[in-house]
Design brief:
Elements lengths: L13 E4 L9 H5 L25 H6 L6 H12 L7 H8 L6 H6 L7 H14 L6 H13 L26 E3 L2 H7 L1 H13 L4 E3 L8 H5 L3 H18 L3 E4 L2 H15 L9 E4 H10 L11 E5 L16 E4 L5 E2 L13 H8 L4 E3 L18 H4 L1 H17 L4 E4 L2 H13 L5 E4 H8 L3
This protein binds iron/sulfur cluster.
Length: 441
Amino acid sequence: MDYESDVRYYKPRTEFSLDINDIQNFVYDMSRYIKCKGCNWVDHTYMPGAKFMTRCPSAEKYQFDSYGAYGKMRIGHAFAEGRLEWNEKAVEIIYACTLCGACDVGCKRNLDLEIGLSLESLRVKAVKDGVGPMPAHKKIAENIAKHHNMYAAPHDKRKDWITADIKPAQKADVLYFVGCAASYTNKEIAQSVAKILKAAKVDFMLMPDEHCCGNTLFSVGMLDEARALAQRNIDKVRKTGAKTLLTACAEGYRMWKVDYPKLLNISTDALGFKVVHLTECVDELIKDGALKMSKAFATRMTYHDACSLSRMSEPWTPYEGKRGWMGCVEPRLERRRGSNGIYAQPRDILKAIPGVNLVEMPRKQENAFCCGAGRGTKEAFPDLANFSARHRLEEVKDIGAETLVTACPHCKNNFAQAVRADSEQIQVMDIAEVICASIES
Ligand code: SF4
């Protein structure tokens, strides 16, 4: 049957793309949201019980439909169609969200709707309309513009993490992008990365005049500023001739691998270098026999999947197509469902350490519950960030883990702060530190 010409089936096709610059691209997604709450509940088939079944930190904390993706889609749809004017509460609702992607992958178990991109696009609209971002985000943007880091720390101190025994090469295939957190607040992570690479005899260089990756700028909808930084940083790396950009920060990893290409409308492959997280690199080194985890670490350990290293980390491919009958799109759109994140590598590394008893939390991999720190949340909504960390720590305690390991400085800091505030007996470590403690020096 010729569906195109048969009047019973023919519907005009509308052009659309995945460009978050234009909220109209996501009107279909926001308007077809059926409120089944797949965005809020982790499928019962994956869960041993009802205790840890929710996936959205915002809905969990505020306990009101507007804060969940189901409410945000309704609000966003009304904004996109001009049926709602911005007000203070609406701005707060749009930003009181960790953009963790849990709703997106939950929704995509049933429907092919782009919830995560709709949420990003809403923030872009908020900035364009002059109501966003939140004051704390504006301060970070100022810090980045003035000091090239999110903390307003002196730029000339960026390399202060380098101790006498760490000697980056002038030129190497691997470029270690340290990031703001490991440069200033989590030097232990940068130092561990350097020691691991030294132990595996992997030469690395640093980015000449490293600046912030711009994660917060992008996440809060300041696309022009984020794009300028993306172009600047990519050009710098290309000029070095590095084949691999290595990072130990999950947020930075997502920026380089997914959101820089998204901002520049190119695919991840077109960057000209490979973006690799420390866990991918170390997993390969162990399997190739270049790194041996020999020192025992006797602990009951659990691993927290940082959102940006897991469900949010699938490569980006720009898309332009047409939507027609029953919402079907042409050409075929390969949806990013979060199942191809970096899941096996960190677990294989931890299992290779003698003495480690690795236990899983009920919510893991693409169903993991966000720590609450990322994408501008901790700075603008510290209560939400703290709530999310404490909620996740309940899960850690429930499985009796003594050590909580993550692969992102932002997760580590948020968890560690919540552990200290509640005087919990949980050791919080970054995976770089754990690896470093176990390798022969
Ligand atoms: S991105 Fe995360 S916090 Fe935001 S609505 Fe979705 S699940 Fe909730």
